[in-house]
Amino acid sequence: MKGENPNPSPRSGAAAELLCGVNAKALLDSVDAFLFDCDGVIWKGDKLIDGVSQTLDLLRSKGKKLVFVTNNSTKSRAQYANKFRSLGLSVTQDEIFSSSFAAAMYLKVNHFPPNKKEDGEKRVQLKSSCFFEHDKNVGAVVVGLDPDINYYKLQYGTLCIRENPGCLFIATNCDSVGHMTDLQEWPGAGCMVGAICGSTGREPIVVGKPSTFMMEFLLQKFHMSPSRMCMVGDRLDTDILFGQNAGCKTLLVLSGVTTESILGDSSNSIQPDYYTSKVSDILKLLGE
Amino acid sequence: MKGENPNPSPRSGAAAELLCGVNAKALLDSVDAFLFDCDGVIWKGDKLIDGVSQTLDLLRSKGKKLVFVTNNSTKSRAQYANKFRSLGLSVTQDEIFSSSFAAAMYLKVNHFPPNKKEDGEKRVQLKSSCFFEHDKNVGAVVVGLDPDINYYKLQYGTLCIRENPGCLFIATNCDSVGHMTDLQEWPGAGCMVGAICGSTGREPIVVGKPSTFMMEFLLQKFHMSPSRMCMVGDRLDTDILFGQNAGCKTLLVLSGVTTESILGDSSNSIQPDYYTSKVSDILKLLGE
Question: Where are the membrane-spanning stretches (chains A, B) (predicted)?
Answer without folding.
Answer: none
